[in-house]
Specification:
This protein has 394 residues and is an alpha/beta fold. It has twelve helices and eight strands. The protein has two domains: 17-120, no CATH class; 171-355, Lambda Exonuclease, Chain A (Alpha-Beta Complex). The strands form two sheets. Strands 2, 3, 4, 5, 6 and 7 form a six-stranded mixed beta sheet that branches.
Length: 394
């Protein structure tokens, strides 16, 4: 089930790490904290539930606010604790830890340490702005790739695209994509390109890259060569006419603007536009998802809106993902095609998708959805649908 988060709550995903950052800076803090932990061996082994953690933070906040100015970092053990049975020792030790922590926080707050004062803790702080992400008169710019990202997980789109959390995988993956796209653009612009020309171009590009070791550079070069060979074989067998390469487009719909960049636009034998997106991905798109693949659908919608009218392309004839990475076949590229919207049961589905996504992006809450891309998500630790980010949903 998707988890819905408010915009501001999703920004504040990490509990202030006051003790970790300042443990060695404040006299007496490390020793007193360690002694409190040693009094309860279960303390380091037991992880409280989300509800318990929230209650503890609220209780700690109250204690920290009321701790007297001269409170000691090392609090005395309550007299009644010595009279309790062995079964209550853990609870008494937990109380000692909480009191010691409250004392530390009070001292740090008085010293002006950032994040120490309870009124700054995200879990008990009111939203600074409960309004929508965009003002009512503010223009919303979306791209085909952002539409796909938003429909996959609204929270990931918010934190990665709108807030600026790092998106994407390791640098070598994006580097490989740029290499293949550069050769693809070269091949599309010159039908007479030879294997020697391609090899020389690869050498030029490779000399400007830094893979930090010779053996890894050679390994990546071999992989790039295989990808390029697959693409060139596909390109030579492609019957369509190449019309545009690596071209940007923009369609202004008033409040919503669709802006993006295509790898190439082609004209089929019926004079229709076919948009090509070259992929170096490791996983192919499931067959059942192709008919309404968001990114391809928005490309075709842009054609319908006149984005490539200057090339005489006004009718969509489909869109394709050309897989040349691990998602390709062993010896050739894998072509994954989306039919024209006119062949769908609902020809207006791309238009409706853009409207739904634009409305969602301008909203006040964003859904976190578990999906097959969670494994590589850069904001997983801030996501309430996973254990790493469970505290965000408290």
């Amino acid at each position: 089930m998707p988890v819905v988060l408010s915009r501001r709550a999703s920004f504040l995903a990490l509990l202030p790490q006051v003790f970790i950052e300042h443990q060695r800076r404040v006299p007496g803090l490390e020793s007193s904290t360690n002694s409190a932990r040693q009094s309860d061996p279960a303390h380091v082994r037991t992880r409280p539930s989300a509800a318990e953690a929230t209650r503890s933070r609220a209780s700690l906040a109250t204690s920290a606010r009321t701790a007297p100015a001269g409170s000691s970092a090392r609090q005395p053990r309550p007299p009644e604790a010595s009279r309790r049975g062995a079964g209550t020792g853990s609870a008494a030790a937990a109380l000692t830890v909480r009191r010691a922590a409250a004392g530390h926080l009070a001292r740090l707050a008085r010293a002006g340490v950032r994040g120490a004062a309870p009124e700054h803790w995200y879990a008990i702080t009111a939203l600074s702005d409960p309004g929508p992400a965009f003002a009512g008169d503010e223009q919303i710019t979306i791209s085909p790739s952002q539409v796909e990202a938003f429909t996959t997980c609204g929270l990931r789109w918010l934190l990665a695209s709108a807030v600026g959390a790092q998106e994407g995988g390791p640098n070598e993956y994006s580097t490989m994509g740029k290499v293949v796209h550069a050769v693809a653009e070269m091949a599309g612009a010159d039908d007479g390109i030879s294997e020697v020309d391609v090899a020389e171009r690869l050498d030029e590009i490779w000399n400007d890259l830094d893979f930090r070791s010779t053996w890894y550079s050679e390994k990546q070069r071999e992989q790039a060569t295989r990808m390029v060979d697959k693409f060139l074989a596909w390109h030579r067998d492609n019957p369509n006419e190449v019309v545009a390469l690596e071209e940007s487009f923009k369609v202004d719909l008033g409040r919503v603007v669709i802006k993006g960049r295509i790898d190439r636009a082609e004209r089929d034998e019926q004079g229709r536009a076919v948009i090509i997106d070259i992929k170096t991905s490791t996983t192919a798109v499931p067959k059942d998802d192709l008919a309404r693949h968001p990114q391809l659908g928005v490309y075709q919608y842009a054609v319908m809106l006149g984005a490539f009218e200057r090339h005489g392309l006004i009718e969509p004839g489909g869109a394709k993902l050309v897989q040349v990475g691990k998602a390709a076949f062993t010896a050739r590229a894998r072509e994954q095609e989306q039919p024209p919207p006119g062949e769908d049961a609902d020809p207006d589905w791309p238009k409706k998708l853009v409207e739904i996504v634009a409305t969602g992006m301008a909203g006040e809450v964003f859904q976190a959805r578990a999906n097959d891309k969670c494994r590589t998500c850069p904001v997983r630790s801030c996501c309430p649908v996973h254990d790493e980010g469970g505290q965000v949903g408290d």
